[in-house]
Design goal:
alpha+beta; Beta-Lactamase; elongated; Phosphatase 2c, domain 1
């Protein structure tokens, strides 16, 4: 009879423990669903701290996250990192650091060292907040309210909660990264739209000339720019430039430079290229460019079709090619000065060429000549020069397309993206 009662008691005890386990698992599932539904890291940590304290019957606790190579306190309940720094483990490091470095939980059932400041520490439970990708930090609970030490069940329950927290933190970080990427893409789209509105229409109806262009930024937006600006019925100004940087900063400086040039030409349509370069340089130096790492190389030419002449100024840019049909010779347009945007009050020199029917001009940026092949060899100026001499008679746009294809074949296999912005501006002076 006694044996039957003992067996019944064991069965009741087992059923009671199973029911308690079922309820615990239900609570954990509910808490896990709540934690993983939150997408703000600060809220996640606050909820996890509250649930953890309640689940293991802890008195006080602290959550730290790993930022800039150190553990930083984020949520504190009745304790600060000064106390944690004084709870020393067997390896000589504090409990939070030991937990984070080993990526393993720390369970101290009975802590027997005296801490000078803070609560009387009797027991400690620390858990790494880790996912497959990384360890985000630690949660540390100090003292059980029942004065008993933390148990293995407490460790398992906290481990389950913290796993949910790690998943929630991963999700929050992914969302934050996704939103940031989306914001950057929106900003880049706006910057590109601005840039595209500034670049001139490819269909320039200028009597006596044929113009071809090729523009390809290395990134979503670029620092190369070109412009064709009508200043009278028989004259126009051509501009090609290259900002030292890339991406949005370069695009913004490019936009500023274009706006300054157009403003100067509106005030003085007959301004010489050298004076225009001087004015632009001074404006850029006195407030637009704030760093020594940004500058512009620039070529400006004022083409007068009535007088059959082109005055030009080259500010540190790769010298454009000018093919003189009359002389049967290729010239390089060098006179000018140094780059713009760094040294105020510079004087620039000016060059001039006479225009004849059949002449042609090719301006370009270093994204063309410095394109690299698979062996790091550069396309170079000579290849482009020979191409212009031999094939420059082609229609202006067709020639630009041909050069692009030449460069692409040369650089095939060297990388997925172009190394630098790529711009060509080809002007042919037609037979009357």
């Amino acid at each position: 009879m006694t044996q039957e009662i003992s067996t019944e008691n064991k069965i009741f005890d087992l059923e009671g423990r199973l029911e308690k386990t079922r309820l615990n698992l239900h609570d954990m599932a509910t808490m896990g669903a709540l934690i993983t539904s939150i997408l703000d890291i600060e809220t996640i940590l606050s909820v996890v701290m509250e649930m953890s304290i309640r689940t293991v019957d802890g008195e006080v606790g602290l959550i730290q996250l790993h930022e800039n190579n150190e553990l930083v306190s984020k949520v504190a309940w009745g304790v600060d990192d000064v106390v944690l720094n004084n709870i020393i483990c067997d390896d000589g490091s504090n409990v939070s650091a030991s937990c984070f470095n080993t990526r393993e939980p720390v369970l101290i059932r009975h802590y027997d060292r005296q801490i000078e400041f803070g609560p009387n520490v009797k027991s400690v439970l620390a858990m790494p907040i880790k996912s497959r990708a990384q360890c985000h930090g630690t949660i540390t609970i100090i003292n059980k309210t029942t004065d008993d030490g933390f148990s293995d069940d407490d460790l398992r329950h906290l481990d389950m909660l913290v796993n949910f927290a790690a998943v929630a933190i991963d999700n929050a970080l992914l969302l934050k990264e996704s939103l940031l990427k989306q914001k950057i893409e929106q900003e880049l789209t706006i910057a590109r739209q601005i840039q595209e509105t500034i670049l001139p229409d490819k269909h320039n109806n200028i009597k006596g000339v044929e113009i071809g262009t090729m523009y390809r930024p290395a990134r979503y937006v670029g620092g190369d720019f070109y412009d064709i600006i009508h200043v009278s019925d028989n004259a126009f100004v051509m501009v090609i430039g290259d900002v030292s940087s890339k991406g949005v900063p370069a695009a913004m400086l490019m936009s500023a430079a274009t706006a300054i040039i157009r403003s100067e030409l509106m005030k003085s349509p007959d301004i010489s290229p050298s004076q225009l370069m001087t004015n632009l340089n001074n404006v850029l130096c006195n407030g637009v460019i704030k760093t020594h790492h940004m500058f512009i190389t620039l070529f400006i030419a004022h083409v007068d079709m009535a007088q059959k002449r082109a005055a030009y100024c080259n500010a540190g840019h790769l010298p454009p090619f000018y093919w003189s049909r009359e002389k049967d010779k290729l010239l390089q347009l060098r006179p000018g000065g140094t780059l713009v945007g760094q040294f105020p009050d510079l004087a620039f020199k000016e060059g001039e060429v006479k225009i004849s029917a059949g002449d042609r001009l090719l301006a370009f940026t270093d994204g063309v000549t410095e394109a690299e092949d698979i062996n790091k060899g550069q396309f170079g100026t000579e290849r482009l020069k020979n191409s212009f001499i031999n094939d420059g008679h082609l229609p202006a746009t067709e020639y630009c397309t041909m050069v692009r294809d030449l460069v692409d074949r040369f650089a095939e296999g060297a990388g997925d993206e172009p190394f630098d912005d790529f711009t060509l501006l080809n002007i042919k002076f037609l037979e009357e």
